[in-house]
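Predict both folds.
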Amino acid sequence: MDTLRNKMPMERLYLHLDKFNYLASDTIWFKAYLFEDAYLMPSTKSGIIYMELVNTENQVMKRMKFPVRYGLCWGNISLGESDLPSGTYLLRGYTNWMLNFGQDAVFSTSIYIADLNSKTIVSRESARIGSKSIKPVTRITDKVAALEVVSLPGKLQLEVAVLPLDDTLPATDHYLVALSRDVVCYAVPIDLKGGKIVKFIDKQLFPTGMTRFVVLNRSLQVVKERMVYIDQQDQLKISFSTAHAVHKAMDSITLQIQVADKNNVPLQGSFSLAVTDDGQTGIDKRSHGLVTYILRVSDSLLYSRNPVHDWKELLNKELKYKAEPEFIISGRANSAFKGLSEAKVSLFLQKPLMFMDTIAGPDGRFVFKNIPMSDTAVYKIQARNKKGKNFFVNLEVDEWVAPVFELMPKLEQMDSLLKDANFVQKVQKALSFKQKFGKATGHMLDEVNIEAKKIVKGSYNLNGPGGADQTLTERDMLKEGKKSLYSLLMERVPGLGTGSYLFPPSRQRKFGLKIKGQLVKIIIDGIDVDQSYEYWQSMSSDDDTLEGMQERFLHLKTNLEHFTAEDVKGIEVMYNSLYNIKYNNKFLSQAETRFSRGGGLTGVGGVSGIDYAYIEVTTRSGKGPFMKPTPGTYLYKPLPFSLPLKFQSSGYGATVHWEPNIVTNEKGEALVSFRAGTQPATYSIVMEGSDMNGQLGSVTKPAFITITR
């Protein structure tokens, strides 16, 4: 068991959030604590944390990446950039290494987001994304009937009983093992030949947390299991005070913080603190807190749903997910499907300006380390053979693939919370404050009437910079990775779909792309993709969809799927006559603008009163739809790092103050100062943290500060 723990050391992640209910324009402020499982020291396995905001349909609305140092990380997630309707969302955090242990190893918590455009608070069956239920798991059929563990408060010993089904078992047929945080703390062979056995075990053998008792058979298979929580009363003691219990609006408030261990010895550590307005948010009673989650909940979730049947099998298991102690770029240079030995591989980054090079190994593998962090990184990788040539050189880069999680069961607590009149009143008050004060402080962006036009650099747009109904810029492309241009357009262009139409001069109907009933033309770097489409082929009129899939639609789709988002600098969509008239004049043939059949104008174009819609695509190469990738090059766009911002109080928001990096001195002391809001209120305080040496602490003080006029 120790060998397995050394091979597969688990990580425990906890996220301290500033609050649990937000407005759609808010920012989520968080601090992450990442521990190695056994002794709750800072994890050395992972230097990267991924966080996801997930809606009720299990769709990831936002995914971000943060750097971790010494097991600590803090940052923020802006909700203002996303279209988030009112409802419950899941905030999920994990490292790549944690994925080896299943979905239950991942930290997740549900939050509520209220849309500013909707004052109605609704449940929407949204709480399906909560935690899984906990229940005992029966392992395999065996001659052990039951395992009972009794832990009474005030008692120094645990009573553990094992009941056999019969008394004919060999004397050393089974083992009783107790693990805490995956460390074996107690292990003995048990003799069930004489019937029921009872063991009295000293609680001092185990640290605070869930202790897992298992009965193993001779093949080291788990046949029975029970868990019990043991509390050694060794949590950190956190206290704070202010000069005055009552303060006036906009007063400066200083918190004096004191942290000590269980023996009242002052202690240095890293802590996070949230001060919130009780009138706009409350203490999350569903929240477990750092101490409870790390020492109790995470074990209960993991082991109750992921029983271990065979320790030997796990020892031989190949790990699918690699640990990421730092951000690296790795891959393989090859030629004719063989590794290109001693290939010269170069890495370019434009912002910040950076150049690195390396030599590939005998198998063509290469790796770049110590790469500067960037929040908008686009890396160009180039490989050449030993002679400095790129002919017949191919590059494969190890791309990080986002995991796919199952939709989690319904969380009843969130449903009940959304039906709570007091909670609804708090959310409504937060919305009211936002609408009342946000405009004066410049936060109500939806009230601004003048907006700067988005511009695509290097575009062939006939209307000039910004002359489009919809514009997707390079920044938008960076978020899409290697998604095909066809998929990107279908997802991001409102109203874009497929349908049939008359495509002149053919007298049969075709099947292709449409926007709001208008036939779509694709222009790539100023070149009409239809230029290479032979539309005069005779067609069968039996099935519109089938014939279209055989011809023009397939032609357009093939061209669009040739490109990925990383090949594109920007996309501009024109469907109003203000923008598409110049495109009609340049790209429509006479047959397209004036198509007559049976004496009537049945085609498309200005003459018939039905305009085309145009999608102008600007690629990085600028070579139009005939671009061929340069041999030996690869454009790598990883999920960028998100770097933390400093909390700025609005003066009226639910989060009055957020301090993610409080470090106590050798006397266990720290000072935190902040300014009170503009309205009378009471403030609650939540502070959590660790000495990062195995000791944890959490404290909640409801209505600790009163603000008057």
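Second protein follows, with its predicted structure tokens after the sequence.
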Amino acid sequence: MMRRDDGQTFSWERVVKAGLGMAGLGVVLHATPTLAQVSGTNSGSTAATLPPVTVEAPNQARPRAQSAQRNSASQRGRVAAQRNAASGQARNPEAREAGIGEGKLASENSYVANSSSAGTKTNTPLLETPQSISVVTRKELNDRAVQTLTEAVGYEPGVRIDAAGYDPRFDAISIRGFDITYNGIYLDGLRLAGAGLGVFKTEPYGVDSITVVRGPSSALYGLGSPGGLIDLQSKLPTSRPFHEVQTLFGDRDRVQGNFDLSGPVDANGQFSYRLTGVVRDADVFVPGGKDNRVYVAPAVTWRPDQSTTFTLLGAYQKSKTPGSMFTYSSGIGTTTDIFTGSPSYNSLDQEQGRVGYLFEHAFNNAVTVRQKFRYVDLDAVTRYVGILGVSAGNIASRYTGYVHDTLQSAIMDNQVEAKLATGPVQHTLLVGTDYTSSKFSDKQGFGFGVSDLNLAAPVYVPESIPDPAISSSTQQRQTQSGVYIQDQARLDHWILTLSGRSDWVSTTGENLFALTRQQQSDQAYSGRAGLTYVFDSGVAPYVAYSTSFFPNLGVDPSGAFFKPTTGKQTEVGIKYQPQGTRSFITAAVFDLTQDGGLVTTGTGVTVQRGEIQSRGFELQGLASLGGGFDITSSYTYLDMVTKQAGDSSLVGKFPSGNPPHTATLWGNYTLPFAGPFAGLSIGGGVRYMSWSYGDDLNTFRNSSVTLVDAALKYDFGQAAKELKGLQFQVNAKNLFNLHYTTCQVGYCYRGAPLTVIATLGYRW
């Protein structure tokens, strides 16, 4: 378990930093956007979203919810094999290593993935999965120079990433209008629990690909948001040598170095390793704000034979970001450039570590067993200054806030996969059990001892601000165990996918000041039924019904435990993967209903709302075409309505922060290798978000916004053989530096300003 004294840096951490720097990490100047504040709540969230801690008076009560939280005998087999050969990335180990001899990972070859285990927990072609799924490959992440998880999924259909503006502290994401920040982020198929201000931070450089699964997925994963989930695929050891170092340069004094080293350890190839790391020092736009990070992720794989794989994974990350990024709102739907906090007391210092393993053994061609395990530990200390009130002379009186959150979680998933036949029907049967144990503690204090702020002429002078005394201390424990079964039954072109699961959850909450204790037990069944028909042409229509279940940590204003949040969805879609091409097109319509979601009110009190319905249409097309052209595009139509609520004035309203229309387009073109521009590639993207309501009463709207991104890359190896592996890349995000505001639940935030990143990388 990691612990740190406030404000202290362990000496061994300094040794790690120095060692990484000497290992050849480049120094980087990286332009980071800098924005947003304590994230506001998604009105459709299934768990408490990031609480608006910076606007509460010290004497206010702050109850807050926390989440601990195949083989086919038909001719379709031949068609699928042709499709597989034309596709980009597969999730099995052999396919992921294709092309490593040239120093390129398989997921860097194409924007188009062929298969994913995220939708079924088996290696299933996306075409045959009865659910809307998107995979962001490593190639797309590299082309867009992605620096955060929110950036990574920003071009995906159904995903909302900036309802609370830009915020480097959290990856606040919603899918189909429902928040997944606390209960929908997975790593290698295992959930990363989050609670309070203790939310795990994702380092995108450490992942190989990112899968977005839209719609309820509790039938396989248990506790979760009805909106869906995001599964991150770790970079795993490779059987062939792969080495990369990068130096990043950007605005706001950003300096960053990345390294990724992998390959076999012994001559027989039984052991292989991977070591990935990031060191960053960066400023953000608020006075005194930082966006620093140290990340190291070692991994070792043991393959004693062709049927057995054991991979040990670990990671350590230390981050420093602002505790608050609030800027003063001068009126409804507006923000200013006036930072409301103090540079002398504005930080979120977080340490997180994880260790775990992935084990797989195939007894024969029919039976495979898998076991996954991970233990995580997080320690987050947040210090911030908020406004108590503003006098007639524009003088703001302020208070201090202190939050210390810790979270430990252990999770294990055991699976048995069997391939069998009953007459002409081919089955892929999956049976599994999983178990999660989480412990979350939260200490808070509020005080004064900070100067007033003149909003007409703000001046931020250094001052000594003490931590306030702790005024509340709570602790919560949650255990969850589940059993699930799935059958993917195939008869000629038909595929019937049936999944079912039962969960048992026990939650205990303690108030360590009041010496009170509460216990709650929940049990629920979740399921999914999907039917797909795969034509030989690569067209696959499907229909599916699925449910979700999530027991909420925390209590309502009366002190009672929240009831579980549930969801149900009907989805009808069609997928098309043309034979002989690296392209994929999907379209889906859905009707999704959530019951019992949580929302944090403007006074920081978390309440349980009634029923919210989300209906819509999603379209995505992506391709890696001949001639070096890659493209991804999407369109989303979202229609949400509050059907039931404790506050009758919200019934019939559109939950705030969710635009009815979003559209995205990103393309990258590599010029021919012959000619004066050999080695040059150019890229560009557009993200459009229509108007949305700024509060849940729908009294005002956010304006629509269109953001433009651009990229330019040069491969020096095309100019001189001795420079093979050397590349330079420049990316600009929000190219025209559009100043925009987003309001949600009545709180308004600034969007990300122009950000420029230059990357010099070398591979060998």
